Amino acid sequence: MKLLKWTLGALILLGVLLVLGSLLLPARTHVERSITIQRPPAGVFATLNSFRRFNEWSPWFAADPQAKYTYEGPAEGVGAGMRWSGNQAVGTGSQRITESQAPTRVVVALDFGGHPSVATYTLAAEGAGATRLTWSFDIEHGYNPMSRWFGLLFDRMMGPDYERGLSKLKSLLETAPPR
């Protein structure tokens, strides 16, 4: 009986420490990766300002080529949206362009089943005819202790995907005829 009380007390203490410790963790997670693409910002922007070519460079498309995609709203710019439903690897969700500032910035609202977040594409001219593209991801955790702990893993989980996606986008745009 004494061992049971000690074990229960230790579990309660551990739970309290995990919750209190989470309050010391960031309430927001930010992940970003960048790449230089040998195309002018306007051409890169045109591809990012629409979801019609997203799966040509998406790092997640290969995880479920059978996933279902639907497009909503205008073909490009603010209001353009895409929904998907796939296997466990890609899940279900949606993305919608909420801000479009040609040729420097596209902001996308993401929803992965109740976990709203934001992806931002920031473009800057770099040299003659090149673009420095930064793809970032931000999510607010609020006071959710588990979400805050999970936020510590986002960079390691998403960073490689973002690098792969940026590399595919670079290859796609640099091998296509200039626009």
Protein model, in words:
With 179 residues, the chain is α+β, with helices and mostly antiparallel strands. It is elongated. The chain contains 5 helices and 7 strands, in the order αβααββββββαα. 35% of the residues lie in helices and 32% in strands. Strands 1-7-6-5-4-3-2 form a 7-stranded antiparallel β-sheet, covered by helices on one side.
Structure summary:
With 179 residues, this protein is of the alpha+beta class.
Secondary-structure element series: HEHHEEEEEEHH
What Rg, in angstroms, do the CA atoms define? 20 Å
- Total count of helical runs of at least 4 residues: 5
The biggest sheet amounts to:
7 strands, antiparallel
Beta-strand percentage range: 25-35%
Helix/strand/pairing class, anyone? alpha+beta
The shape is elongated
Number of DSSP strand runs: 7
Strands of the widest sheet, in order across it, are 1-7-6-5-4-3-2
Low-confidence stretches: none
Please tell me the overall pLDDT.
Answer: 88
Q: Report the helical percentage.
A: 25-40%
Distance between the termini: 76 Å
